[in-house]
Amino acid sequence: MNLYFLGTGAGRPAVHRNTAGIILQPSEQSQEIWLFDCGEGTQQQILRSPYNLRKITNIFITHLHGDHVFGLPGLVSSRSFTAQDQPLSIYGPAGLREFLLTALRLSGTNLTYPLDIREIQHGSALEVNNYTVKVMEVEHVLPSFGYRIEEPDRPGRLNVEKLQALNIPPGPIYGQLKSGAVVTLPGGEVLRGSDFVGPPQPGRRVVIVGDSRSCQAAVDLAQGADVLVHEATFEAASGENAFAYFHSTTAQAAEIAKKAGVRQLVLTHLSSRYTKQAEQKLLAEAQRVFPNTVIASDHLSVPVTRAPLGF
Fold first, then answer.
1. DSSP character for 158?
2. Quick check: 95 and 68 in contact, CB under 8 A?
3. Is the predicted pLDDT of residue 311 greater than 60, yes or no?
C-alpha cells in the first residue's frame, strides 16, 4: 500500500505545489490505483509520476470546490485514449454527477468505457475490491467528506514448528488448519486450527480528510489509522482565519492525529503564501504536538507500513 501526492497546494496552482490530488495504490500485488481529488493539472502530474492514467479504477472526490475537481472532466476524457473499455467508478458528494456529465455533454465527449458515478453521503460504507471505504462528513463551506480505507485483515501465521513437533507432515492438512478447520487424524486425534494459528494480522488503515475545520468527525474517522492525511492550510498562529474560512492549521491537524491515536500524520493543502523556506517552521509547529508528522510535497511517495504487533 502506497500514497503518492500529485498536488499539495490550496486554492490555486503554485510554482511548487499543484492543486489537490492523491494516488493510493491499495495493494503491492496489483497495478490498480485509486485517485483522491482531481484538481486542475492532475493529468500533467500523473505524467510526471511512476503511475499510469489507464490504471485508475476508482476516483474519490472530497468536495466540489474547483481546486479539487476542475481536472476531472479532462482526466475522464483522456482516459478513453488509454483505458479503452476498462470501467471507472467515481464517488463524491451530491452534485458530482451533474457537474461531470454536463462538462462531458457540452464538450461533446464520448467515453469508450463504462462510467459509474455514485453520490455518497455521511455514514456511507463502500465495498470496493475487497476493501471497505468509510465516509464521514467534515466541516467545510461545501459538503466535504473524509474517507477511511480499510484493508482486510490477514489470517494469522501457521505454527509449522508446533505441527512438526507432533510429526504432522506438510500437506493439505496444513491448509485446513490455517483456515481454522477442525481436523481428525487417521488415528482419531483431533486438531483444532485455532491451536496452531497465531492472531490475525490487522489490515492497514488510511484516512484522507478533504478541506475541513478542526472537528470531532475527523478524530472519529481517523481512530487508530496507520496514516492520516489532513489539510493544513494555515500556520498555527492563524487559528481565527482557519476557522473563518473552514480550514485547519498545522497544530490543529496534529492535535487531531494525537487524539485519534494514528501512527503517522501527513500534512497537505498548504496555502501558496508559504514559501519552501517557511515549511520547516510549519513542520515544527505540527511536530511539537505530534512528532511523527511529515509535510507532503508534490511527487512525495509515502509507503503505508503494517503496524508492529502490539501497537
1. B
2. no
3. no
Catalytic positions: 67
SS3 (DSSP) at 144: strand
Q: Is 188 left (phi over 0), alpha (psi -120 to 50) or beta?
A: left
> Measured between alpha carbons, how far is residue 306 from residues 32, 220, 229, 290 in Å?
20, 21, 17, 20
Decide: 126 and 90 in contact? Cβ < 8 Å. Answer: no
**211's grid cell:** 478541506
From residue 150, alpha-carbon distances to 23, 93, 125, 130, 153 in Å are 16, 20, 11, 9, 9
Where is 59: in which H helix or E strand?
Answer: strand 56-60
Burial class (CB in 10 A: 0-12, 13-18, 19+), 204: buried
Convert the pLDDT of each residue in 165-206 to its tens digit.
988 888 888 888 888 889 888 888 888 888 888 888 889 999
Dihedral sign, CA of 229, 235, 238, 239? positive
Give the residue extent of every domain in the chain: 2-153+202-303, 160-195
How do residues 29-59 score in pLDDT, each as one tens digit? Answer: 888 999 999 999 999 999 999 999 999 999 9
* Host H or E run for residue 82: helix 80-83
Q: Please provide the CATH number assigned to the domain covering 2-153+202-303.
A: 3.60.15.10
Question: Based on the number of CB atoms within 10 Å of its own CB, is 279 exposed (0-12), middle (13-18) or buried (19 or more)?
Answer: middle
**What are 126's strand-pairing partners?**
133
Within a 13 Å sphere around the CA of 68, how many CA atoms are in the beta-carbon half?
23
What distance in Å separates the CA atoms of residue 103 and residue 248, rounded to the nearest whole number?
31
Q: Which of 8-17, 22-31, 283-292 has the highest mean pLDDT?
A: 283-292
